[in-house]
Amino acid sequence: MADSSEESRPKRMRRDTSYKAKAFEKFKQLKSGNRNKYEVEELDSVYEVVDEKDYVKKVLSRQDEDWIVDDDGSGYIEDGRDIFDDDLDSESIAHAQASGKEKGKKRKKKAVSENAGKGNLQQMISNMPTKKKEEVKIDDDAMLSEILEEMDDASSGPLKAKLNKTIEDECSIKSRKQAAMDYMKSFSVPAKKPPSITIRTPKKEAKKENVPISCKKEVPDIKTEIVSPKGLATQKDNTSVIKKPQINGDLSSQPEVIKKEEESTIEDSEVPANDTEKIKIEDDFTQECFDDDLDMSLIEEFESQDVKNKIEEPEETMVDEWHAEFSTEWENQETEIDSSMLDKTDIPLVVNADGKKVFRFFWWDAYEDAEKHKGVIFLFGKTYSEKVKNYVSCCVAVRNINRQIFFLPRTHVLGDDGKPTDEPVTFKKLYEEVNDTIMKPLKISSFRARYVHKKYAFDPEVPAESDYMEVRYPPTDPKIDINSLRRAPRTFFRIFGGDSPFLELLLLERRIRGPCWLDISDPVPVNAPVSWCALEVSCSRPGELAVFTGEGGRQPPPPPPLVVLTMHMRTAINPKTLANEILMVSCLAHDRYALDGKTPHPPFKQHFCVFTNQSQHTLPLDIHEALNKYRATKVQKMGSEKALLNYLVAQMSKIDADLIVGHDLHGRQAALLADRLTRLDVRNFGKLGRLRTTEKKKLDRRLFAGRLVCDIKITAKELIKSKSYDLEALCQVVLKMKENQYMELEPGDIPKMYRTSDGIIKLISATMQDASYILRIMYELNAIPLALQITNIAGCVMSRTLLGGRSERNEFLLLHAFAEKDYIVPAKQQYKKNDDGAKQSARKKPTYSGGLVLEPKVGFYDKLVLLMDFNSLYPSIIQEYNICFTTLPASSGREDAPEMTLPSRDSAPGVLPTEIRKLVESRREVKKLMNTPDIPNEQRMQYNIRQMALKLTANSMYGCLGFSNSRFYARPLAALVTHKGREILMHTKDLVEKMGYDVVYGDTDSIMINTNLLEYDQVMKIGVRIKQEVNRLYRQVELDVDGVFKYLLLLKKKKYAAVTLSKGPDGKLYENREYKGLDIVRRDWSQVASESGKFVLEHILSDQSSDERGAAVQQYLCKLRSDLEEGRVPLPLLVITKQLTKDVKAYVDAQQQPHVRVALRMGEGRFRAGDTVPYVVCKDGTSNPPTQRTYHIEELKKRPDELKIDPQYYLAQQVHPVVSRICEPVEGVDAYLIAECLGVEAPRARGPSASASNREVGENAIRPEVRYRNVDRFRFRCVGCKAELEADEAGAWLGSQCSGDSCRYRPVDYLGHVQNQLTLAIRGYIERYYQCELTCEDPACSNASTRRLPLRFVRRHPVCFVCKQGVLYRTYNEGQLYLQISYFRYLMDPTRFTKTVLEYDVQEGYFTLMETVDEILNDSGYSVIDLTELFRGFEVTSKIFENNKQKVLPTMDEYNEEDEDDDL
């Protein structure tokens, strides 16, 4: 190798020494700073010559415009002087240049400007304009270049390596995901695919001269819209079929996209090669580029490909065209309201039906600050202004909302001894005591009182109907609490309404049910505004506020359109302060989002991205040039994080959004934004909301006060089911994106992308793309129209509805219902206390029995299984049995549910059943309207949203009864509902079985019936017959057919996999897969385990035979094992993720939690509560358990020589548990076979009970070879040769000669030694038993062995303290100990030698050893059953019959019930 390297080195010829000296001299001059002289050309004039009149006009126009930008929060004061353009942002420059084009010379427009901090010399120099000049190329001088090459030889290697490493880091995410995806594609699944997702279309072979045109729904790159056939070959799994576009020189019409789920075909446009230059691509970035399924992970792949037949169009030209079109669209569609035209003292008024002028507005949100503004509610909404011909934001302050309390009088006045007297309580006596004992001590100067008749149904100590004294007094006075009185009141004993919030009082009194049009009769303009709204009005008292319901029999107008702002942030951890810093924010805005119309198109009209760099790093030198070429969106580069936040606040104040959309906005992003605003002391942070405030305490809770906030993560949790609710998972579930198509950036990747300008551009594109995904998800879920409908139904505040609080929505619905019927509502309980005064957890399970889950008949069913369920079971039960606070006696609140007496059939309907009936009937009417054939699609969509809102509200009504923190919490009512649900399910099961069908499983409100049929229509007829038999028994409860399973793999309770069948409109059957509760949908498994489970399920739930399934599974597992052992499995498939439920330092058992260990090792501030920690299990040269050999991916990269992936762990504790659980009921595949294919050791793989579960059919467990199959053999040492011998149970080992060459001893010759060794062996097993080592029943749990006994037990078994799910059992139990000792006795029993004649001494030796074993075995109580102790409870003595007292002995069923109670 050395010779070859020397031969490849170029040989140099000798040169003259003087020539070298001249070259070195020249190089020395260059290094010393002496450059070649250049001829400076004549500079062009950079000034625009204007006269004095034009100059004054320009200065005045600038003063009128709002063009000044704050500098790091300090701000400028306009005094009429000119400033430099570098201090402006790009929008101001563009506006100024646009006005200057008409009068002066055309200037070159800058695409971006930098708001850098003052005093930064490096950024000032980088911003200086430079003139192109002739450069001296060193390559032209051959001798000088050769010298420089020699000097750079030593440093070129590390430089290239560093450059390559940077590129590798940037491509790491894409390459890792692509490698994992390619690896999983290598396993082909020959299973039959469901017909619903298989669409076959003829494929055409791509020709070189043809150019495929990408469509708007599948744009792989934001820079290139035309890709080559070679580039498209890498996307053979795209989910679209692109039809041939009409190419007539203009491509304004985009190609049609037909969505498919599996296969796709790309038809090439037949365009001659010589005509490709005539094609023009017109892309609307607003409508297209952010509305498509961009795969940013493919950017670098497409850029790196060398495409021979690519259309020769300059990239800069295409980007310029995009930017020009985008900028034009921005200017045309941006509808900024000129606030200078609005006079806040001139309130726009309308004339109502009574001819009176009122201020009419639509309120969206309400805000209450009971500490600073007592008795004041701020209503934020929109009103129409004739001056600007548009809707503008407004704030209405409803003041003087009085407190309202009710005093429940006694029947008789209490005496001094606390006992009632004969004197009745009158209104005068009650009034005097309230005034003397409460009002005067609290210094309440004025109050009003009256007698009213009210009802109460929530406490057995309070009468159902009674007279109350209602008292109202000013809100500035203190609250009244009966517990604060010095002595017990004599004329009253209860006070209601003391803690009622002012917002609740306003909504109930004025009967405001959600966002609607409101009229203010006497509006008062505000001189000192308290909000940032365009208009502000004050309402002096609540009586001036009224709901506008329409005029002339017409409905009120629809809600005004919303201004929507979508924001997404990128953060990075500062290595010095370990604090998260905001580096980039992208925003999308739309100013007319109409909730009663279709989804807006384009989805947004305005967009910008602002970014900065970390303080300890500098931006690349070519960042300005890269940003000038980037035309996709408006980019603003700021000099610091504080400047970025100031810019963001200014832009959000300018847009004045009514709705802010984001992902995890109420979680991390709002908290982080509030923290950075506070730490950096940003003064104008209040403009993020609509309420003027300078208070930074608890800023994250009121950061966007006055604006609606939609967190799609919270909304998606309520509307859809998903394995995870991060942005990647939501894109796959909602937007139907393919797996690995979304590029998720890890926290450590963002600083790496700041190293190059190309990385920053990609980060900007990815951030804007994520913002567009968030907006599209909100549109797809119809989150805002649905929230509006739910809020109007419940009568609460829309901002609270968007937070996903179902209990609060149900509370307001019942509050309105009870208030309308003159009921006093129960008080709001913040929390409940236990006996010791501690707060009760909101997550605590109910103290009553819930729904019934039938014991599943585990197995694999290849005949059709019928799934039936009850429609809205719990709401139907409430209606069926008229369960309500008003129908059941309040005194039964302390009784158990089964003992409660149901109301009679002829009793009046209660409030709760009435409200549910209204919701159900309204939904039926809406569904009828929705099925009307001639209605527009927009109206049909509104009906669908309405019926969905009604369904969600009705189904959640039961929740307020069982939620302990709800003010309508009623445990007896909730227990009664669940009791009747269990009763109905059991009765339905019995009825189905009487009809001759087998019920294999049931859960709360559904049952699965095995029909043993293969015809779909016959199964549906059976379902109809069962439905009719069950529904005739009830009036409101209704059973219906929910689906048919073609295959069902039933594993255990709430865990099954199935293939569902459904008949389409065309009469064809379509298949779909359904997984519930399986390990493959859990996040704490590695992807290789999940994919293994999916692969096995694909084969099990297919039309293959059992032999084909078993062969495919074995082949897959063997290949996976070899790939893991040889390191061919990509790293992303081995990553395990687990979420931190609390702060890292709050974990007590941090060393037992693998993800906590990794988080602690990665440093403080890297991971916080709620973050998911990724890690892998490696071999680190130690013998530590797997939980202590977990490492982050970055650690694995930094220490490749020390850390290696542990394949045995992934095979034994990741793949094997998942696959073995799935295959347990499948014939032909068992745990032994899986362990053998994976090379897993049998003890860990099969567990202690595997020997019994894996016996072959027909085996006789009494036979010794079967019974003692898995015990340890007896081994002893020879006294002669010291060799270890094993007792052979098949032969007379005690009399056999030693196997040693020179040893002639027999074991019987040293019988005493054998006896001692036998005793020591037995004692060793006994000692092992008394060590009480416990292990988790879950093979995947990291708790391999422990002697720690948890305090929590379930059915007399301790619960594992690591996984919190499985139970702990002994690794060596009493049964195994007894079996081992019994084996030794069998081994020493001479009577088993029936065909062999033993010598006398050998026979006596066997008896001696057997007696030794019997002495120990007789001390064991495992084999002894004392019937006296067992049946002592049934002993009858003479004392029972004394005094002629007869007692009934308990039955066995009663004893079993007592045992079950003890278990609970």
Q: What is the correct CATH architecture of the largest domain?
A: Alpha-Beta Complex
Major beta sheet summary: 8 strands, mixed
Indicate how many domains the architecture comprises.
8
Total number of strands: 40
Poorly predicted runs of 5 or more residues: 1-13, 66-96, 99-126, 130-140, 142-174, 190-333, 831-844, 891-898, 1243-1258, 1438-1464
- The structural class is alpha+beta
Rg over CA atoms: 40 Å
Q: What's the name of the CATH homologous superfamily of the largest domain? A: B family DNA polymerase, palm domain
Distance between the termini: 77 Å
Report the top-level CATH class of the largest domain. Alpha Beta
Mean pLDDT value: 76
Number of helical stretches of at least 4 residues? 43
Specify the overall morphology: globular
- Taken as a percent bin, the fraction of beta residues is 15-25%
CATH fold title of the largest domain: Palm domain of DNA polymerase
Q: What is the helix content?
A: 25-40%
Structure description:
- The structure is a single chain.
- This protein is α+β, with helices and mostly antiparallel strands.
- It folds into eight domains: 54 residues, no CATH class; 138 residues, no CATH class; 205 residues, 2-Layer Sandwich (Alpha-Beta Plaits); 233 residues, 2-Layer Sandwich (Nucleotidyltransferase, domain 5); 258 residues, Palm domain of DNA polymerase, CATH 3.90.1600; 163 residues, Topoisomerase I, Chain A, domain 4 (Orthogonal Bundle), CATH 1.10.132; 154 residues, DNA Polymerase alpha, zinc finger (Hypothetical protein af0941); 32 residues, no CATH class.
- Helices cover 35% and strands 15% of the residues.
- It has 43 helices and 40 strands.
- Strands 4, 5, 6, 7, 14, 15, 16 and 17 form an eight-stranded mixed β-sheet that branches.
- The chain starts with a helix and ends with a helix.
